[in-house]
Amino acid sequence: MERTANTAVEILEACGNVSSQAEVSGIEREYSSIEYSPVQTVDGTGSRRGLGLRMTRNGKLGVSGQWGNVLPFELVDRAISSCRYGPEATFTFPSISPESPPEVPDTLGTLDHDEARNYLNLILDGIRLRAPDASLTGRISWGTDRFLIMNSTGLRASYTKTRSSTSLTVSVPSREGLLQSGCTIETSCSLPEVKDVVEVLALPVSFPGLSPGGAVGRKRVVLSPTAFSVMLQGIRNGVSGRLLARGASPLEGMKGKTVLSPSLTIRDMPDLPGGAASAPFDSEGVPARNKTLFEDGVFQGFIHDLASAAASGEVSTGSSGRNLGEHSRPVCTNLVVDPSRDASSDTLAETGSGLLVTDILSAGGGDTGSGQFTFDCGRVYLFRRGEICGYYDGCVISGNIYDALSRVITPGGKQFRCGSDILPFISLDGVSVR
Predict the structure, then answer these.
(1) pTM of full prediction above 0.90
(2) What is the rounded CA–CA span in Å between residue 263 and residue 259?
(3) Under 8 Å CB-to-CB from 385, ≥6 apart: which residues?
(4) Backbone angles phi, psi at 421, to 5 degrees
(5) Is 394 exposed, middle or buried (0-12, 13-18, 19+ CB in 10 A)?
(6) Which of 31, 313, 373, 404 has the fewest Cβ atoms surrounding its Cβ within 10 A?
């Protein structure tokens, strides 16, 4: 990280005569990977280094970024050009450096390819207990990310974390064709629990030999954590202070009001142990903190970066996120939905009868800004009295996210990792199905 830090100092010095304030962020990434399939397993390693620059010039905000061998004056020149058409600079970069995070238990730092391969073999063994003809393909990547940020107002901060991304697909031949199930789980400090990965992957392929059925109209629908995570993208957009500043948020004026079902509590948790998106501070150097977005269905408030906070008369919630060379925007980190304290882990039994959606193939045709959604779910499963009894192909569900999440029958009693989120199954009433 010393080389990246030295280059960052050079960039700030080069900005001294051309901008009123400047900020440099850097990342060094070292990673290992395994491509896993029934045919062969391929090991990989690699590294990346990048730097990003933001500056204020003539009242405008400009950005630039580059991976690889960064030339400081090139980065500065591109940022100057970006200032000509950039947004108004309505805020000042923070000058107080956040505290360094404490060390946490970490098993990813010593993980090797043989251990990762054995981990995948355990997942396959677990799936074959439910589907003996199953095959497994996918990829695990893991490694170390080192971040730093410094600016012309005196802020200096850095942190290091290990992170894994596990993306897997199970295939099972059946008389109806090839059944497939996939998941992506991201973690920090450790790999996902084998039993949880098996449970998420095996569910959609555990019911060969079912008879087809039909389902049209308003139905009870159970969303798996994978499908629920897609629906929550609308919530991520809705709570953004950027949308509020543009006058486009469906949650404007709703703070303190009941928006979702009283059984739903949704949190944004950058301080979550083992969270893939956990961080001690955001991409602007503002300390990150856990936030409750909805408590018992009541909207608690928006998330902000420095720009959206200035536009809304608020303060930053430490929620800035951006890629190198991009402007900041408010982002959620690890979304966590509280499980039901009263429900069992068998959400189908709690629901009774309806449709089980295990995945969403595409989310086109909706508008996540307003909360409207249209989800192509492919194959869904019909269940009656809590038992899978058939399937329905080509299922599409649609509606409004806030309306759907106001009619929750029950969240499940157990949470699962999905992407960077931690979610239960969720049962909804009156979802439009065609």
Answers:
(1) yes
(2) 11
(3) 349, 352, 353
(4) -90, 160
(5) exposed
(6) 313
Structure tokens belonging to residue 215: 């389902």
The Cα 121–Cα 406 span in angstroms is 41
Place of tokens 């699962």: 416
Q: What tokens appear for 210 in the block?
A: 């079912």
3-class DSSP state of 102: coil
Ordered by where they begin, the domains of the chain are 2-119+136-169 (3.30.2290.10), 210-433 (no CATH)
pLDDT tens digits, 199-212? 889 888 887 777 88
CB neighbours (10 Å) of residue 235? 25
Instruction: Find out whether 241 and 303 touch, Cβ atoms under 8 Å.
Output: yes
347's enclosing H/E stretch is helix 347-351
- pLDDT for res 312: 92
DSSP state of 109: G
**How far apart are the C-alpha atoms of 372 and 300, rounded to whole Å?**
21
CB atoms within 10 A of CB 327: 17
Cβ neighbours of 47 (radius 10 Å): 10
Q: What is the pLDDT of residue 349?
A: 87
* pLDDT of the residue at 368: 64
pLDDT for res 343: 63
User: What confidence score (pLDDT) does residue 104 get?
Assistant: 77
Helix, strand, or coil (residue 198): helix
pLDDT at position 367 is: 66
Crossing angle of the two packed helices 194-202 and 113-128, in degrees rounded to 10: 40
Residue 2 DSSP code = H
Amino acid (1-letter code) at residue 137:
T
Q: Which residue has the tokens 């649609």?
A: 398
**Cα–Cα distance measured from residue 427 to residue 348, given in angstroms and rounded to the nearest whole number:** 8
DSSP per-residue string spanning 113-153:
HHHHHHHHHHHHHHHHTT-TT-EEEEEEEEEEEEEEEEETT
CB 144 within 8 A of CB 160: yes
pLDDT reported for residue 205:
81
Which residues in the chain land under pLDDT 50?
none
Q: For residues 88, 90, 92 and 98, what is the CA-based torsion angle, rounded to 10 degrees?
A: -100
Question: Whose structure tokens read 């031949």?
Answer: 173
Q: How far is 183 from 207, CA to CA, in rounded Å? A: 18
